[in-house]
## 1
Amino acid sequence: MKRMLTSCFGLGFLPIAPGTWGSMPSAAIFALICFLCPGEYALTANSVAMILLIVIGSFVCVRYAPSVIAATGKKDPGEVVADELAGQAVTFLGATATGSKEILIIAAAGFLLFRFFDIVKPSPARNLEKLPAGWGILADDLMAGIYAAIVLQIFIHVILR
């Protein structure tokens, strides 16, 4: 059960780039909320949903990743993608969009920005990987999410609007 939770119900076991698969639920939930909620409620609904994903992903990663580390013998097992779920949610915290085209553009931009910062790991994200067990797996993704959120907000307010 621990491996199923840390892999976001199997997304981490999918072939090629499991972190990319683990990032998708947060981006999809962001887009779905923007499509379904009226404009004035979208920001609130999205913020609540992203906070829940951050808390759940973070808890799962810190609590259960050490068991997966022990089972696999890897310091940062690729199958653990709860950290990507949480980090990608940080990217969309405080973001909203209206209209189909804008929703898809912002969802795609946020997704790509998070993946970029998660892969490149600019300082101090790379240093955060040195934290023990689940904390090290999680912290760099939360930092990547912060970087991506800043750039996404600039993109939304300077380029799109």
## 2
Amino acid sequence: MEYLVRQARITDIERLAAIGRASIRDAGRGPLDAADLLRQLVYLPNASLLVAETRRVLVGGALLVLRPSVTAGGYVGTVDFLVVGPDHDLDRVTDALLEELLRSAANKGCATVEMAQPSDPADLARLTRAGFAAAGPMLRRPLAGADSARRP
């Protein structure tokens, strides 16, 4: 099965929120629920909200949020969440989403990408294969060419 990864549209948000409901902690505790927050992130330039689909069916999604960092020497991209529907190939969808997230982070001038360490050993192995390494409570992956992208 082939998976297409693309930027999320506002019409994708309800399905993406439904897929990610179990992994989005504290949903509904703040002034906005997960779907409302995701709707706002679709249009922000410092965030990349991606979805994976096959045969026009949404099967997963991921969110990359950028922040400036003096110590990192540029922007740091944080993978805020990465979700895959239960009936789909977790490895292939995750790999496709991560590939596009890393490309987006590099295009936006990120020096590194980080994400929280997952508690599931299989998830950790998947991220390690993608080039992430433990750095305290986080996983980090430096991006190739980040130094040359920052030079004038």
## 3
Amino acid sequence: MIALRSILKPADNTGAKKLRVIHVYVGSHRRYGGLADTVLASVIEASPGGTIKKKEKIKAVMIRIKKETRRSDGSYIRFSDNAAVIVDNNGNPRGTRIFGPVAREVKAKGFTKIASMAKEVI
């Protein structure tokens, strides 16, 4: 469950080090975001040589969350961190690499480019 002011770890090579959620794009009357949801985030920390700068507002797709998520077969999946991939307005990733595993729900929601760039889809 990702709410406002949640701290996220970027899982790509754009240069951002920490993100803070400022809006969750999941529709009306929903307070939290989950796997494969799009969020608007602000960059808290960034590396000096990266393409993303500090205080920049960016869109990101959640690829890992700590809260367990129920799948259609009855199993549950959860990760050890909250991680996101920075995307542009069309949903394409801005980085060229993705680090760590990616949930299968990301591909099912239409972010096939993110799933294909990942080494491991769980």
